[in-house]
Amino acid sequence: MAGWRKTLRSARVAANIRKVGVGAAVAASLTLPEIAMAEMKPAPWNSGVMIEQIQAGKSGDDNKPKVGDMVEVRFKGSYKGNEFDNTYKTEMPYLYRAGVGNILPGLDETIVNMHVGEKLAVSFGGDLAFGQKGRPSAPGKPRIPPNAVIDYEVTLESLPGIGDDFIADFE
């Protein structure tokens, strides 16, 4: 994160902590995900996902996916600041059918509610993430315990409109 952005974010978090009347001892005990969530708001679809808009997308229903539409997205997932997934580093965006359960539920429902070009910071846990089982560690990736709260940065890049015949070859 750029230095000025980190400073601004720290100042906003401090202001949020003061606004809700949290004492210095409590504020000092907050973890980074808890502090970050102090800036986030519940998603308008009210499922337990917390969001913060980083960049607005194109308005209009033509720029919003419907359940079953093919979408191209970029996302970066982390747990307690440790990255476990990052499609921003890949050559191509991640292509999948939105809203049908092919990815984590919290991420899937977020993408179905986004507009093309929109970028969000999201946070969710429990059954919206890795659930009761969590996720075991893998080489270079952190272990994620059961019901952990995870964070994503996600961008809806496009609705490519690829036909069902093309996709059926890959499913």
Query: Strand fraction band?
Result: 15-25%
Give the proportion of residues in helices: 10-25%
User: Which regions contain 5 or more consecutive residues with pLDDT less than 50?
Assistant: 1-37
Major sheet characteristics: 7 strands, antiparallel
* Subunit organisation of the chains: single chain
Shape estimate: globular
Radius of gyration from CA coordinates: 17 Å
Give me the count of strands: 7
Return the average pLDDT rounded to an integer: 77
Distinctive features:
5 helices; disordered N terminus; single chain; alpha+beta; 171 residues; seven-stranded antiparallel β-sheet; 7 strands
In short:
With about 170 residues, the protein is α+β, with helices and mostly antiparallel strands. The chain has helices spanning about 5-20, 25-30, 30-35, 105-110, 165-170, and strands spanning about 40, 50-55, 70-80, 80-85, 95, 120-125, 150-160.
Question: Any overview of this molecule?
Answer:
By secondary structure, this protein is an alpha+beta fold. Helix content is 25%, strand content 25%. It is built from 5 helices and 7 strands, in the order αααβββββαββα. Strands 1, 2, 3, 4, 5, 6 and 7 form a 7-stranded antiparallel β-sheet that branches. The longest helix has 17 residues, at 3-19. 20% of the residues are buried. Mean pLDDT is 77; it is low at 1-37.
Secondary structure topology:
Elements: H1 3-19, H2 24-29, H3 32-37, E1 41-42, E2 50-55, E3 70-79, E4 82-86, E5 94-97, H4 105-112, E6 119-124, E7 150-158, H5 164-168
Antiparallel strand pairs: 1-2, 2-6, 3-4, 3-5, 3-7, 6-7
